[in-house]
Design goal:
Distance between the termini: 24 Å
Radius of gyration: 12 Å
InterPro entries: A_deaminase_dom, Metal_Hydrolase
Number of helices: 4
Largest sheet: none
GO molecular function, one term: deaminase activity
Number of domains: 1
Pfam family, one: A_deaminase
Protein name: Adenosine deaminase
Length: about 70
């Protein structure tokens, strides 16, 4: 399995935000909700955020997927 992340690290420089990065992943690349959730979880897990913050964020992604 290969992993990737979507991000908007330079949002001011490139006039973007995270939602504008995920939209083409869905509409152009055809990623399903399951794939988008996996990308989001990989992005969170690979971040330098504190573990407690990452765990909560990954759970919120899972909750979003359950309701989509």
């Amino acid at each position: 399995m290969r992993w990737c992340s979507l991000n908007a690290d330079e949002s001011l420089l490139f006039d973007t935000d995270l939602l504008r990065e995920y939209e083409p992943a869905r509409s152009v690349l055809g990623l399903s909700d399951e794939r988008l959730a996996a990308v989001a979880a990989a992005s969170i897990t690979g971040s330098a955020a504190p573990n407690a913050l990452k765990e909560g964020a990954v759970e919120r992604v899972a909750a979003w997927l359950r309701t989509s």
